Amino acid sequence: MTTHISSGGFKSIVKIAWRNLWRNRKRTLITVSSIFFGVIFSALMGSMQEGSYQKMIENVARFYAGHAQIQQKDYPDNQSINNSFIASDSLVKRLNNTEGINMVVPRLESFALASSGNQTEGILVLGVNPDQEDQMTGLSDKIVEGTYFDGPSRLLAGKELAENLGISPGDTLVMISQGLHGVSAFGKYPVAGLFSHPNPELNRQLIYLPLDEARYFFQASNRVTSLALVGKSQKSIDKAIPEIKKNLEQDQILRTWQEMFPAILQQIESDRATALIMKLILYLIIGFGILGTVVMLMAERQHELSVMVAVGMYRSKLALMLLLEILWMGVMGVVAGFIGSLPVIGWFANHPVPISGQAGEWMKNIGFEPYMFFAWDVGVFLEQMLVVFILTLLISFYPFVRAFKISPIVGLRN
Amino acid sequence: MSIITIRDLHKTYNSSQVPVYALNGVDLTIDEGEFTAIVGPSGSGKTTLLNIIGGLDDPNKGQVIINDTEINQLSSSEKINFRLHNIGFIFQAYNLIPVLTARENIEFILELQGISKSKRRQRSHELLEAVGIPEKADIRPRQLSGGQQQRIAVARALASRPRFILADEPTANLDSASADNLLAIMEELNKKEKTTFIFSTHDARVVKKARRVVTLEDGKIKSDEMTKL
Q: Cys-Cys link to A360, which of A29, A276, A355, A382 (CB 3.0-4.6 A)?
């Protein structure tokens, strides 16, 4: 009697699985649509999330601190002018020649007391190179009153700080501080203009001085507290990190924006966790949609599957056939979702959604532009495609396992 | 030469705690080339007997030996393989695969066996001719009448030249003309291909065609008669 194990029938299995998909066209299309919309919505959600983070990082990096900074090694723990360093021309040149770095911007930063009339405020003095600073942060565009540095000894003050001190362009501000190695620092500076920065904190306490003037004020000739590095993007700076580190002196360190602003990083991380819950809910809805179809499909075809086993089809082949059916639905939905999400996200990436009303005002107050930004990031698409596909794969285990339990006699009786 | 030997076969179903004795000590031998009808009233155990012979169900006691193989001792996947190579099935409700055409349904078993495409094509053509509907080769089951579907089911059962064919009430869903036609085809294939046919039936026309009639009652063989030589 012939009892050798047969391995044939793969083509038939593929053929039956494919045709089974189209037996109930409506159901297949509904299931594929649920995967399609699932991919689109989750990609949209991910793109919005990443877009807002990128904007947040860009706000901090591009408009204030740079993507990274070079500082003296003790400066992070003690932000004193005494922990400034001399940025040699050769260091600046080497950094400028490093691939990925677009700009190296020197800054001298320290604290002072500013006074006008009877009003006194604690302030942050930032000595900058006016041209480079403008190129990096677009500072001249933020001038709301007066002019951008129109002379060597003039300062720019935050709008709110100016209101608190009762000053306006043309007025003079007196500043007192401690310079390098404890020398007394004082000076009188006319106000050239007032700026309004998206970050209210900076509006309340920041004063810009030309770098040479700040060095003179703090008696810190040729010194800087930081060299801000600006790249094409955060990624280009991240790539250049090893090369940058090679160029540093022993007492200098490189700090990325993540190290300088851990609170922002934490905010992004916590927001990601919240968004993950939302995504999980979305994935659950998609998952149960597909599972519903699969359970119905198995129940309807119990008899037919039993016949196949009865006439000599191995359960493993049956399982493969069912697996293929579900996977094809998954692949169709995921690929369609990917193609469908391209124009949708592409449009939103180029047309940020304005946020109006109280929410918009609130965003402005905390220093953000009142828009919903979307990231055009292939990683976001691929991640969503992969997650939804894995979800489909997990669901396909249900018919896969059930196929191994099919009893021909029970199915035939039913 | 005997192809199937059944010894002291018992099958009990425990439906709602009340045992139902479907088979109660059946002994039977089927020889190669037989055209045997198993008859009896509803609940007499005809379908149960065919299911156990086909390895679809297990007995509580007794043996079914097909040539040298005791089928109820095989593992589940060994049984599948055994059925694939040795047994053809014809069901009352035809049970063709709805997404395959008539030809593909016939070739399905052959493909599972790993038979080459050209041989499959040749065999399906032969069988489509034999069952009298070669023009329906590329038609799917739902476009065929009941009688035509059952003819394709017969062709599918015969495709791999099995040792024997088990047919459970093959004419129950057919009108009398289709039933007569099907019986004539089965009879001819039995003679031409020397395939053993065992079928359960209520149908007097089928009984009339059978060369041996085994009557079951209350799970036991009541009579076993050779009607034709």
A: A355
Instruction: Give the tens place of pLDDT for each residue, A71-113.
Output: 999 998 988 899 999 988 888 898 888 888 888 999 999 999 9
Are A4 and A298 in contact by the 8 Å Cβ rule? The answer is: no
Q: How far is B114 from chain A (nearest CA, A)?
A: 4
Tokens linked to B180: 């007569």
ipTM for this model = 0.90
Q: What CA–CA distance (Å, rounded) separates A68 from A65? A: 7
- Residues A165-193: tens digit of each pLDDT: 999 999 999 999 988 888 889 999 999 99
B10 touches chain A (CB under 8 A): no
Furthest CA-CA distance within chain A = 112
Chain B residues inside the 8 Å CB shell of A16:
97, 99-100
- 8 Å CB contact between A189 and A153: yes
The DSSP output letter for A63 is I
Contacts of A300 in chain B (CB under 8 A): none
Domain ranges for chain A, please list them.
10-60+265-413, 74-250
Q: Which domains does chain B have, with CATH numbers?
A: 2-226 (3.40.50.300)
Closest listed residue to residue B132, CA positions, set B102, B95, B100, B93:
B102
> What residues does B14 pair with on adjacent strands?
B19
- How far apart are the C-alpha atoms of B209 and B36, rounded to whole Å? 9
Chain-chain contact of B104 with A4 (C-beta, under 8 angstroms) = no
Size of interface A-B (CB pairs under 8 A): 96
